[in-house]
Design goal:
Structural class of chain A: alpha+beta
Low-confidence stretches of chain B: none
Mean pLDDT of chain B: 92
Number of strands of chain B: 2
Largest sheet of chain A: 6 strands, antiparallel
Oligomer: heterodimer
Strand content of chain B: under 5%
Number of helices of chain B: 15
Low-confidence stretches of chain A: none
Largest sheet of chain B: 2 strands, antiparallel
CATH topology of one domain in chain A: MetI-like fold
Distance between the termini of chain B: 40 Å
C-alpha cells in the first residue's frame, strides 16, 4: 500500500511539474527576449532557442569582437566593419564550418528605455491608473449600496429586480455595443475617459451579485440590534455591514482593478488620441507599428505583466476565495 | 402598507437606485435601441433610416458573415470541450494532498490574470514561424526532422490559413487555470465517504474517477461549459491583436465578434452590426438553453 502511494505521488508530481513547465515557459521566453539585443533575437537557422540572453563582446577600441570556439585559436573579429577570421593570428578568407560563436551571458537592458520612449509610457501608465482607480471606487461604492438593498432590506419587487441583474450578466456585450457608442457620442463623451469610468458608478451586475452573496451571510441580529439603538439604514450600512465585509469588498476591488487594467475593447472604441491611451491600447498600437521589434515589445509586455503578477502573489488568498465563491454559487 | 413597509420600500429603492438608473440608461435603453437600429440603415452620423428586414436579409447572403460563423463554431468546438477536459484532469491531479500543490495551482492560474494584450503579443512571438519559441523547440527535439521524412515542414502557425485557428485554440488552453480553480472547489465538495465505499467495492483509481468524481462534479462542469460557450462566442481581443484587426490570413480567423466590430467601427455599418449583435444573442441564448435543458439528463445534484 505504502509503495503504491509513493509511486502514485511521484507520477502526480512528474505530470504536474511537466505541465507547470509548459505554463511557465512563455513567461520566461518573454523576459528572456526582452533582454536580448536585436542581433541575438533571431537565431541562426538550426540553432536552439537561447534562454539566457547572451551578448557580444567588444575590444578596448569599442569594436565588436566575436570569438568563435570549436577550433583552437580560431576567432572572428569585426575590424573596422570588416569581418576577419583569424587562425592563430593569421587571416583566413574561408569560413571554417565547424566553429560556433562564443559570447558571454549579458543582458541588453536598452529594450526597456527604448519601449518607454516609443510609447508615451508614463502618460499611458497615469491614464491606466486613473481609470482603474476611478472604476474601482465607483464599483465598490455603487455595488455595495445596491447589494445592501438586495440582501438586507425587504421590499416588494426586490427579487424580480435581482433576476434582472442575473439576466443582464448573461447579455453579450455585442448587443449593446452600437447603441452605447451612439449614446456616448451624443453625450459628447467619446474621446474621453467618461465612457470607461462613469457607468462604473451605476453598479455592475457581477459585483452586485458577489457582494449580495456575502452580505446575506452576515447575521440579521446585528442589523436589528443597531436599529434598536436608533441607527438609520445608512448608519447600519456604514457602521455594521461595511466593516464586516472588508474581504468581499477587497475581492471586488481587486477583480475590477485587474479587469480594467487589461480591458481592451472599450478603450479601443472610446479613446482616440495617443495621449489618452491606456497601457493595453498603447502596447497594441506599438505592436502594429513596430511589428518585428520583439525586444522592446517583450520589454513592454513584461512591464505590463509584472505588476499584475506581484499583485497576485500579494493577494492570492483573496483571489482564490473570490473565484471559488463566484464559481460555486454561480 | 405599514410604516415599516413604507420605510423599507423607500430605503430599498434608494439603495438600489444607482443600479436602477444605470440599468435603464446603460443596459435597457441600448438594448431597445439596438432592436430599432437593426431594422435601419445607420452610420452613427446621420439619423437612422428605417429599412425593415433588409439587414437580416443581407445577413443571409453575406459570405463573410458565414465565414465568421464557421470560424466561431470552429473555435468554440475546438477550445471549449478539450479545455474542460484538460482542466478536470489538472484539477484531479492537483486535488491530491501532496506537498507543493499550492505552487502548482498558482502556476496554472497565472496566465489567466495577465493582461490579454500582453499574452497576445507574447504568443504572436511564440508562434513566429522562423524565430519563435514553438518552432525553435520543435526543431530542437527533432520534430522538424521527423516531418521532413514525410515531405512536410514545420507549420507556419498564424501565417498559414490552415493552422491559424488551431494556433488560437492551442493558445486558449494556456488559460484553463481559471476553470481548474473552480473544478478544485467542486472536487473539495465530493465527500470522502463515497470514495471509501467505492474502495470497499474494489474500485481502482480509474473507476473511482468515472463513477464517483465525474458524476459528482457535473454541476461544476455545467457552470464551466456555459461560461466557456458564452466566452468562446464573444472571442475578440486575442484575434484582434494577433491579426491587427483583419482576421487573416485569408479570413481564416475572422470570428463573429471581430466581423461585428469591423462592420460597426471600420465600415460604420451600425444597423448591420446591431442585427449581428441580435443574432449572436439569439445563438448564445439558444445554446445556453439547450445546454441547461440537456443538463437534466447528465447533471447530478448533491443530495438528490
Amino acid at each position: 500500500m505504502g509503495n503504491r502511494n509513493a509511486i502514485k505521488r511521484i507520477v502526480a508530481h512528474l505530470l504536474l511539474a511537466a505541465t507547470s513547465v509548459l505554463f511557465i515557459v512563455p513567461f520566461v521566453w518573454m523576459v528572456s527576449t526582452s533582454l536580448k539585443h536585436e542581433s541575438r533575437i533571431f537565431p541562426e537557422s538550426g540553432k536552439p532557442p537561447e534562454w539566457i540572453p547572451r551578448t557580444d563582446q567588444f575590444d578596448e577600441q569599442g569594436r565588436r569582437l566575436i570569438i568563435y570556439e570549436g577550433k583552437p585559436g580560431v576567432e572572428l573579429k569585426d575590424v573596422d566593419d570588416k569581418k576577419v577570421i583569424l587562425v592563430d593570428g593569421q587571416e583566413l578568407n574561408v569560413w571554417p564550418s565547424d566553429v560556433t560563436p562564443q559570447t558571454r551571458i549579458g543582458f541588453h537592458w536598452q529594450n526597456y528605455p527604448k519601449a518607454f520612449a516609443t510609447m508615451n509610457f508614463w502618460v499611458n501608465l497615469r491614464n491606466t491608473l486613473f481609470i482603474c482607480v476611478s472604476v474601482v471606487i465607483g464599483t465598490v461604492i455603487s455595488c455595495s449600496l445596491v447589494a445592501y438593498s438586495f440582501s438586507r432590506i425587504e421590499w416588494p419587487g426586490r427579487d424580480a429586480l435581482f433576476v434582472v441583474v442575473l439576466a443582464t450578466m448573461m447579455l453579450p456585450y455585442e448587443v449593446t455595443l452600437v447603441p452605447l457608442f451612439v449614446l456616448y457620442k451624443w453625450l459628447g463623451w467619446t474621446g474621453s475617459f467618461k465612457p470607461l469610468i462613469i457607468p462604473a458608478f451605476f453598479g455592475t451586475p457581477f459585483y452586485i451579485f458577489l457582494l449580495r452573496q456575502f452580505f446575506m451571510g452576515i447575521p440579521r441580529d446585528l442589523s436589528s440590534a443597531a436599529r434598536i439603538d436608533g441607527c438609520s439604514e445608512l448608519g447600519i450600512f456604514m457602521n455594521v455591514i461595511i466593516p464586516l465585509s472588508k474581504p468581499a469588498l477587497a475581492t471586488a476591488a481587486l477583480f475590477m482593478f485587474l479587469f480594467q487594467w487589461a480591458d481592451f475593447l472599450n478603450p479601443l472604441i472610446y479613446l482616440q488620441d495617443d495621449r489618452q491611451y491606456t497601457l493595453a491600447i498603447a502596447l497594441q498600437q506599438f505592436q502594429s507599428n513596430h511589428e518585428s521589434e520583439w525586444g522592446p515589445l517583450m520589454a513592454m509586455s513584461t512591464v505590463i505583466t509584472v505588476p499584475i503578477i506581484v499583485l497576485f502573489f500579494l493577494t492570492q488568498r483573496t483571489f482564490i476565495q473570490g473565484i471559488t465563491m463566484t464559481g460555486l454559487k454561480g | 402598507m405599514t410604516r415599516t413597509e413604507r420605510r423599507d420600500l423607500r430605503n430599498g429603492l434608494l439603495f438600489a437606485s444607482p443600479y436602477i438608473i444605470g440599468f435603464l440608461t446603460f443596459t435597457f435603453y441600448p438594448f431597445a435601441a439596438s432592436v430599432y437600429y437593426s431594422f435601419c440603415s445607420f452610420n452613427a452620423i446621420d439619423p437612422p433610416v428605417w429599412t425593415g428586414l433588409s439587414n437580416y436579409r443581407q445577413m443571409m447572403s453575406d459570405g463573410y458573415l458565414h465565414t465568421s460563423l464557421y470560424n466561431t463554431f470552429y473555435y468554440t468546438i475546438g477550445s471549449v470541450p478539450i479545455g474542460i477536459a484538460l482542466s478536470i484532469l489538472l484539477a484531479v491531479f492537483l486535488n491530491q494532498k501532496l506537498r507543493g500543490m499550492a505552487a502548482y495551482r498558482t502556476i496554472f492560474f497565472l496566465p489567466t490574470i495577465v493582461p490579454v494584450v500582453a499574452t497576445s503579443v507574447l504568443w504572436l512571438w511564440v508562434f513566429n514561424a522562423e524565430s519563435g519559441l514553438l518552432n525553435g523547440v520543435l526543431r530542437q527535439i527533432g520534430v522538424e526532422w521527423l516531418l521532413s521524412q514525410f515531405g512536410y515542414g514545420l507549420p507556419n502557425w498564424l501565417s498559414d490559413e490552415n493552422w491559424s485557428m488551431p494556433s488560437l485554440i492551442l493558445m486558449s488552453f494556456w488559460g484553463v487555470g481559471g476553470a481548474v480553480v473552480i473544478f478544485l472547489a467542486g472536487l473539495a465538495e465530493v465527500p470522502d465517504s463515497l470514495y471509501e465505499v467505492a474502495e470497499i467495492d474494489g474500485a481502482g483509481p480509474i473507476r473511482k474517477f468515472w463513477n464517483v468524481t465525474l458524476p459528482m462534479i457535473t454541476p461544476t462542469i455545467l457552470f464551466n461549459l456555459v461560461m466557456g460557450l458564452i466566452g468562446a462566442f464573444q472571442y475578440f481581443t486575442q484575434v484582434y491583436i494577433m491579426t491587427a484587426g483583419t482576421g487573416g490570413p485569408a479570413n481564416s480567423t475572422l470570428v463573429y465578434a471581430l466581423y461585428l466590430y469591423q462592420k460597426a467601427f471600420m465600415y460604420l455599418n451600425m444597423g448591420y452590426a446591431s442585427a449581428m449583435g441580435w443574432m449572436l444573442f439569439a445563438m448564445v441564448l439558444a445554446l445556453t438553453v439547450g445546454v441547461m435543458y440537456s443538463s437534466k439528463r447528465w447533471v447530478h445534484y448533491h443530495g438528490e
